[in-house]
Write a structure and sequence with these properties.
Blueprint: H1 2-46, H2 51-58, H3 62-74, H4 81-92
Helix pairs in contact: 1-3, 1-4, 2-3, 3-4
Amino acid sequence: MRNGFRELIEDERAEGRAEGRAEGKAEGKVAGGILKVIAMVSRKCAKGKDAETIAEDLDEPLDEIRSIYLIARKYAPDYDAEKIYEEFVRATN
C-alpha cells in the first residue's frame, strides 16, 4: 500500500507541474501579445499620431489603445516596452 501512496503523490506532483507549465505558457502568450501592441503604439506615438488615429490604424478598441498610449507617452522618446508593460499591468489590476 505504501508504494501505491507514493505513486499517487508523484502522479499528483507531475500533474501539478504540467498544469503550472500550461498556465505559464498561456500567460506568456498574453504578455507577448500585449508587448506587441505596446511596440506598435509606441512606434506610432513616436511619429506623432494620437490615440484615436492609432486605434483606427490598428483596428483595436480606443479605450485599450488610449490606456497604452497615455502610459507610453511618459516613456518618450525611448518607449521602453518592458517598463510600459509593467505600468500597464499595474494600472489594469
